[in-house]
Design brief:
The chain is mostly helical. The protein is 80% helix and 0% strand. It is built from 4 helices and no strands. The protein is elongated. The chain starts with a helix and ends with a helix.
């Protein structure tokens, strides 16, 4: 039983780190794009997407750094 719990812990830890890296990449991508591109595509504004991806980075980063191995549902909401 110990090995199953250890496997689950490390799997969740790895997945939370991957989600945090993807969230950081999305934030960097949103920062680099001009604000006119967001409006031209008929989507929401750049500050909206910056706030959305910033929140995802915050949630994913905190759960990746947590001692329990992952955030569970909070990780899904953040991603």
């Amino acid at each position: 039983m110990f090995y199953a719990l250890a496997f689950e812990f490390y799997l969740m830890k790895a997945l939370s780190i991957v989600a945090a890296v993807i969230a950081i990449m999305a934030l960097v991508d949103a920062v680099r794009r001009p604000a006119a591109n967001f409006v031209r595509e008929g989507k929401r504004t750049k500050p909206f997407w910056m706030a959305m991806t910033g929140g995802a980075v915050l949630v994913c980063g905190l759960t990746a750094l947590s001692a329990t191995g992952g955030g569970g549902v909070f990780q899904l909401i953040g991603a």
